[in-house]
């Protein structure tokens, strides 16, 4: 999927919502636990109930790996289900990978080829040769951590390096890497006031924005400072949507929550775009 | 496994070698490709041929994930094989994970509980709450990236923060985290001259040292500057050992290479310890 196609999907659906799939057996509706693959059944129901309101899904690999081989099978089934039934969907493997070059090549192969995700999240700490193997895949997208939504973001990401915070240096340096046009960035919604500065460095890049919903970030603030003329935002919500209920009505309640966000997005989009 | 037990194993085996298991179907001996699970067969043969010369094995998760569900099955079989047959072995899931708190908890569960590794490598970029969920597991070890062996290490890790390089700040800050006694650190062998400074910050911690062998680091230099009075080093070698031959003699040749390293280690240890 190209960024132009993603932009078109956003205008078509009047939504830049991405639903995070963080399936946790201790939180999903108990009646699903009797099925053969509760994690997949949960994801499938959430996807079926929300796909017209969202432009993307972001399975978080940790929530599959925690269940070992069974979990990896659920992940494979989930991405296959999306690709087969909703090929217009932008898919994100939220995996936070990154290693020396030959190892990153294997991770890229895992997520872009074997599982056929459109994108994967990566960590920047190991630098250029840990990220470029991902960037080598054309029409696949590498979403690098810049400024995250958690408290620990202030441990290192905002440290001052010659008058500039580390996350800004990460953004600037990454622009010099080969195939940097395939980069997107993670910027937490809990830090909306930082978007102005970030847009000075990466005006055209798509930003994946976690942290609205359960983590407390504001959608309107994020859009005010972070939106560009291609929208340029994918706002993720996981817990607030997928765990809106843990009864038999969970999918319906998830849809209600997703609809609220989509409607807020439609209103925001209508002020700047022909939607 | 406790660090004291690891120290004892090192003196007993006269080795602080860890063998990296990076199974790549394009590199392993062609005759293994006819078996049902070539990756596991390869790992098993390497382990059988080297276990008396090493104190640890470090499967690199990327090389399993690249093969999808089959790869995850091979990973499960590999760690089970080690735990069942060589319970004295220190096992490292080289996974470079790290995410917001509830996600890191799931990764910790995946590697410490489901797969039952002794340790896992993590990335520091997301700070305290991305690492502490791993540290909460007693007698499990969290090996955090400090200064890596690759070229990209100079992109961010060595940037100057108020007169101090980022990797030093990472080391110092991590010491303030809850259960920081469960931390170890990755420090690349290709940067032996940095060990003196690192030992000033973390004198007692075990350091996992990649980069000898294929990446060109010197064992004697690493030991000169990095060894402490508990040895405090686990030196990893992967490609130079596991791909010493791709003929039917691959395990034998792997043993020869491991033996060379072990003998060099024995000589170094004999100068400082009763081995």
From TrEMBL, chains A, B:
GO terms for molecular function: orotidine-5'-phosphate decarboxylase activity. It holds the Pfam family OMPdecase. Its EC number is 4.1.1.23. Residues 16-254 form the Orotidine 5'-phosphate decarboxylase domain. Belongs to the OMP decarboxylase family. Type 2 subfamily. GO terms for biological process: 'de novo' pyrimidine nucleobase biosynthetic process; 'de novo' UMP biosynthetic process. InterPro entries: Aldolase_TIM (IPR013785), OMPdecase_type-2 (IPR011995), OMPdeCOase_dom (IPR001754), RibuloseP-bd_barrel (IPR011060). SUPFAM superfamilies: Ribulose-phoshate binding barrel (SSF51366). It catalyses: orotidine 5'-phosphate + H(+) = UMP + CO2. The gene is pyrF. The keyword Ion transport does not apply. The active site is at 96 (proton donor). It is an enzyme of class 4 (lyase). Keywords: Decarboxylase, Lyase, Pyrimidine biosynthesis. PANTHER family: OROTIDINE 5'-PHOSPHATE DECARBOXYLASE. The keyword Metal-binding does not apply. It comes from the Bacteria. Pathway: Pyrimidine metabolism; UMP biosynthesis via de novo pathway; UMP from orotate: step 2/2. This is Orotidine 5'-phosphate decarboxylase. NCBIfam families: pyrF_sub2.
């Amino acid at each position: 999927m190209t960024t132009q196609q993603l932009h078109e999907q956003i205008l078509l659906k009047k939504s830049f919502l991405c639903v995070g799939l963080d399936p946790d057996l201790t939180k999903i509706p108990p009646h699903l636990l009797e099925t053969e693959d509760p994690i997949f059944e949960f994801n499938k129901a959430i996807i079926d109930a929300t796909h017209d309101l969202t432009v993307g899904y972001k399975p978080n690999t940790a929530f599959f790996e925690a269940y070992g081989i069974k979990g990896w099978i659920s992940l494979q089934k989930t991405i296959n289900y999306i690709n087969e039934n909703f090929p217009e969907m932008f898919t994100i493997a939220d995996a936070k990978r990154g290693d020396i070059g030959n190892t990153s090549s294997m991770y890229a192969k895992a997520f872009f080829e074997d599982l056929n995700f459109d994108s994967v999240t990566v960590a920047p700490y190991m630098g250029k040769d840990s990220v470029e193997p991902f960037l080598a895949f054309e029409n696949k997208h590498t979403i690098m951590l810049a400024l995250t939504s958690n408290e620990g973001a202030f441990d290192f990401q905002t440290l001052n390096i010659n008058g500039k915070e580390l996350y800004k240096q990460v953004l600037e340096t990454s622009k010099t890497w080969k195939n940097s046009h395939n980069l997107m960035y993670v910027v937490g919604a809990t830090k909306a006031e930082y978007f102005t500065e970030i847009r000075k460095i990466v005006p055209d890049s798509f930003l994946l924005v976690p942290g609205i919903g359960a983590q407390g970030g504001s959608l309107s603030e994020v859009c005010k400072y972070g939106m560009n003329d291609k929208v340029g935002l994918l706002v993720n919500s996981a817990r607030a949507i997928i765990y809106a209920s843990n009864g038999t009505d969970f999918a319906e309640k998830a849809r209600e929550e997703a609809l609220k966000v989509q409607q807020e997005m439609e209103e925001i989009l209508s002020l700047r775009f022909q939607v």
